[in-house]
Amino acid sequence: MTRKYFGTDGIRGRANGVITPELALRVGMAAGLVFQNGEHRHRVIIGKDTRLSGYMIENALVAGFTSVGMDVLLLGPMPTPAVAMLTRSMRCDLGVMISASHNPFDDNGIKLFGPDGYKLSDAIEEEIEALISGDLSARLAKPAAIGRAKRIESVHARYIEFAKRTLPRNQSFDGIRVVVDCAHGAAYRVAPEALWELGCDVVAIGDKPDGFNINREVGSTAPEALAAKVREVRADIGIALDGDADRVLIVDEKGHLVDGDQLMAVVAESFRDDGRLAKAGVVATVMSNLGLERHLASLGLSLARTPVGDRYVLEHMRAHGYNVGGEQSGHIILSDYSTTGDGLVAALQVLAVVQRLGRPVSEVCHRFDPLPQILRNVRYKSGRPLESDDVQKAIAAAELKLANHGRLLIRPSGTEPVIRVMGEGDDRVLVESVVDDVVEAVGRAAA
């Protein structure tokens, strides 16, 4: 089935363009009907980030859900992982997060979680899509069965306690100065408060959302402000979240960025030493650096690779019994605690390692030297450039040159007419040369 609404991470697009009140209303009606099982009062919780359009989408969803007989619990601004956790914890039939993650404020999205706290399967999304496009008037609730909606306030404390309980009972971060960048997003209240309760000396930035400034020159996609603040206040560590707080990057005490590959290495080694690593390996995507793979191999651990997207990482983790996985971009999935990436929980695990080792973050979070990695994008108008004989020959020649000293990855973008060409290896000059050769061949075929 060709998907009209759902992408790899829910429904996403420009507010009042793709994500309209009418669409949100129909999503609420359709999802509400799919997740009504049994005779009990059915409940859905709705969280959101701090985008201006969140008010509009929230109200439309409420109308949709209540019209088919579901009660609605409104959380207000909350991280995506908090919505996933609370869906399960509060025995709700469905969870909804209104967010476009790291996108600018004028985009928004609708993410759905089942009663187990996991994102929906393709089959369920297709069932919802079919209903969205259909006539639902005959399935509206009778007047006496229309749902109720109420806003609940205690959930911030519940999520903070949940995050703290992922640490040992007596864990304290007294004396550690932390700068946390909340991206003017969903974690602007909970992240600074959780860190403060654990004993940190907290300096918060990106914690003043105004509806328009989410992810603007702050957060994990723009860590320069965090790096500058870490150096300014001489902090021990910087924590950069994104707009919905499901990803995290770290800045060390020198102001240098630590990506998701290094963080996965830190957590995996810590879990292995504590006997908490469920399987001798980590799950990451094809974009993770070859240096990570070699480092894990030196520890006797494997690296399983999936297509790009935290959804695919989690699917592989669940299918094969891994409990540590993630993406270079900062989605860190620790499935012992969360059913999705959780930036705050991942940051707390890293902080615990830093404190236990008693060494600077620049040492603790530098587990390997990444190999030179070159990524180029080639835009095309139509056709399938990768099927060209000349392109196939160029790819084969490039792979032969790299041999056992690196790897080549060529993939079409899932969202735009672009071919992504990535090469990495021990010799930067060689990597640049083979990437240039493939880019040139793709460019000729795309002309």
Blueprint of the fold:
Blueprint: E1 11-14, H1 21-34, E2 43-48, H2 53-67, E3 71-77, H3 80-89, E4 94-98, E5 107-113, H4 122-132, E6 149-151, H5 155-164, E7 177-181, H6 190-197, E8 201-205, H7 224-233, E9 237-241, E10 248-251, E11 257-258, H8 260-273, E12 281-285, H9 290-298, E13 302-306, H10 310-320, E14 324-326, E15 332-334, H11 343-357, H12 361-364, E16 373-379, H13 389-402, E17 406-412, E18 418-425, H14 428-446
Parallel strand pairs: 2-3, 2-4, 3-6, 7-8, 7-9, 12-13
Antiparallel strand pairs: 1-5, 4-5, 9-10, 10-11, 14-15, 16-18, 17-18
Helix pairs in contact: 1-2, 1-4, 5-6, 8-11, 13-14
Report on this structure:
The chain has helices spanning 21-34, 53-67, 80-89, 122-132, 155-164, 190-197, 224-233, 260-273, 290-298, 310-320, 343-357, 361-364, 389-402, 428-446, and strands spanning 11-14, 43-48, 71-77, 94-98, 107-113, 149-151, 177-181, 201-205, 237-241, 248-251, 257-258, 281-285, 302-306, 324-326, 332-334, 373-379, 406-412, 418-425. Helix 5 (155-164) packs across helix 6 (190-197). The chain is built from 14 helices and 18 strands. Strands 1-5-4-2-3-6 form a six-stranded mixed β-sheet, sandwiched between helices. The chain is an alpha/beta fold. A hairpin with an 8-residue loop joins strand 4 (94-98) and strand 5. Helix content is 37%, strand content 20%.
